[in-house]
Task: inverse folding
């Protein structure tokens, strides 16, 4: 396995510094090479390509012109307002991409709360919410290379309002965490999230972190609509990261898909 090559842009206009990020990562991530870019199509796409070459990298960018969410949805990633990064690393554990997504959601929520003094909720399975609006999304993808499995984990966070505002189709459902940057160190924030994720991974197969995930889930006990149009009332999150609900006398588990809370602008 080889490390990725350092990015050409050592320091970006949005305050991300490749060397500072590398130095801020815990020993768990010692094999990660760090690339910082001013603008890319998608950090996940770059990280996937690196993984196919056997590279272990962290890709960060000030802007994504074709940012992606789950199921091919776009993720609005304008310059000057967000934190966008992806990790590509080998994965030899039994846990599925869904569980890695829940780990990243908990790590991100905990760090954002600590750093910004906010209360962050999680909408199953991969979205973070603040004041009933989506402020972050997570995309986890698996890549196989010869006999090695890689995970590519992308995180996009809306820190401040976009300079030109959100597009009309997102204005009702997308939000930001703070009104002004207030000297926020994006690189340090990124490192804290990645290091927190590393600590959760190191504790596996311990899944007590899911207790935090469950506590932040604001859809449990409420009516939600699934992609088939069916309305269900989820009552718990399984140890596999799935959504548990009753269908008559049968306990069902939804292990993937998209859900919409009926009284949210999702």
Result:
């Amino acid at each position: 396995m080889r490390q990725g090559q350092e990015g050409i842009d050592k320091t970006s206009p949005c305050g991300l510094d490749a060397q500072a990020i590398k130095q801020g990562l815990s020993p768990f991530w010692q094999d990660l090479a760090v690339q910082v870019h001013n603008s890319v199509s998608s950090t996940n796409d770059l990280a996937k390509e690196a993984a196919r070459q056997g590279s272990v990298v962290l890709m960060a960018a000030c802007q994504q012109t074709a940012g992606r969410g789950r199921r091919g949805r776009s993720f609005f990633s304008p310059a000057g307002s967000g934190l966008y990064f992806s990790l590509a690393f080998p994965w030899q554990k039994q846990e599925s991409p869904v569980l890695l997504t829940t780990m990243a959601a908990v790590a991100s929520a905990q760090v954002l709360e600590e750093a910004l003094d906010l209360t962050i909720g999680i909408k199953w399975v991969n979205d973070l919410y603040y004041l009933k609006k989506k402020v972050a999304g997570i995309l986890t993808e698996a890549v196989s290379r010869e006999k090695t499995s890689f995970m590519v984990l992308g995180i996009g966070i809306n820190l401040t309002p976009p300079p030109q505002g959100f597009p009309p189709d997102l204005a009702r459902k997308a939000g930001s965490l703070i009104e002004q940057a207030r000297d926020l160190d994006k690189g340090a924030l990124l490192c804290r999230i990645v290091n927190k994720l590393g600590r959760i991974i190191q504790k596996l197969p311990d899944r007590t972190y899911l207790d935090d995930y469950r506590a932040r889930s604001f859809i449990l006990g409420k009516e939600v609509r699934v992609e088939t149009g069916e309305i269900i009332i989820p009552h718990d999150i399984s140890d596999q990261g799935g959504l548990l609900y009753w269908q008559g006398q049968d306990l069902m588990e939804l292990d993937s898909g998209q859900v919409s809370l009926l009284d949210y602008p999702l």
In short: The helical segments are 18-24, 43-52, 97-116, 186-202, 209-216. The radius of gyration is 18 Å.
